[in-house]
């Protein structure tokens, strides 16, 4: 096989790839999809406390994975929480930092969080922050006295989304479920 320095075809045409397992992919794959995040057409903002909201983008119950945009609307805090999975986030707007670390995330920056870490999210930006994330596994939320209050996972996120839809007579969007 030749080595590749760039994709060999620059034709703006569909090329029929002879992948031998196409039928199996069609039968078994949840299929890729596009979910609009700029409007509320695919998914509404669901309140997450008085100063924040979550736009749910994807739920994968097989791997306890969930994707969303977290919007903290003005200077505020998402209290101390402990991760049991890996989190990949991109700061879209505003800025955000954690009391435990010495960096400040700004738009376009990548935030990686790993199992075993607990931290406290703070935004001091006048317009808060928007964070896009792919999140894996349970997240344990603690009160100010280090008592475990609730564990959040893909099923908590689905319930958060579906409860809001039911309460506001909105249709549940099947595209969000992988
Ligand atoms: Fe976190």
Order of helices and strands: HEEEEEEEEEEEEH
Q: CATH topology, which one?
A: Jelly Rolls
Bound molecules: fe (ii) ion
Largest sheet: 6 strands, antiparallel
Number of helical segments with 4 or more residues:
2
Mean pLDDT over all positions:
96
Q: What helical percentage do the residues reach?
A: 10-25%
Radius of gyration: 19 Å
Number of strands: 12
- Report the CATH superfamily: Jelly Rolls
Structural class: mainly beta
* N→C terminal distance: 34 Å
Task: For the largest sheet, list the strands in their spatial order.
Answer: 1-2-3-10-5-8
Task: Please state the second-level CATH architecture.
Answer: Sandwich
Low-confidence runs (pLDDT<50, min 5 residues)?
A: none
Reading off the top of the CATH hierarchy, the class is best stated as: Mainly Beta
**Strand residue percentage:** 35-45%
Shape: globular
Task: Characterise this structure.
The protein is mainly β and 178 residues long. The chain has a single domain, classed as Jelly Rolls (Sandwich), CATH 2.60.120. Helix content is 12%, strand content 38%. It has two helices and twelve strands. A hairpin with a 5-residue loop joins strand 6 (96-98) and strand 7 (104-105). The chain is globular and about 60 Å long. The two termini are 34 Å apart. The mean pLDDT is 96.
């Amino acid at each position: 096989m030749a080595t590749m320095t760039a994709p060999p075809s620059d034709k703006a045409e569909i090329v029929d790839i002879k992948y031998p397992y196409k039928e199996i992919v069609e039968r078994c794959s949840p299929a890729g999809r596009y979910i609009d995040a700029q409007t509320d057409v695919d998914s509404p903002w669901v309140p997450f406390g008085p100063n924040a909201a979550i736009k749910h983008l994807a739920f994968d119950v097989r791997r306890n994975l969930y994707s969303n945009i977290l919007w903290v609307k003005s200077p505020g805090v998402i209290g101390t929480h402990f991760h049991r999975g890996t989190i990949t986030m991109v700061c879209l707007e505003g800025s955000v930092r954690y009391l435990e670390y010495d960096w400040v995330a700004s738009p376009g920056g990548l935030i990686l969080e790993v199992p075993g870490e607990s931290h406290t999210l703070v935004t001091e930006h006048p317009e808060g922050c928007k964070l896009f994330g792919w999140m894996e596994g349970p997240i344990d939320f603690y009160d100010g006295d280090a008592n475990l209050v609730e564990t959040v996972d893909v099923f908590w996120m689905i319930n958060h989304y579906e409860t809001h839809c039911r309460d506001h007579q909105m249709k549940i969007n099947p595209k969000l479920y992988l």
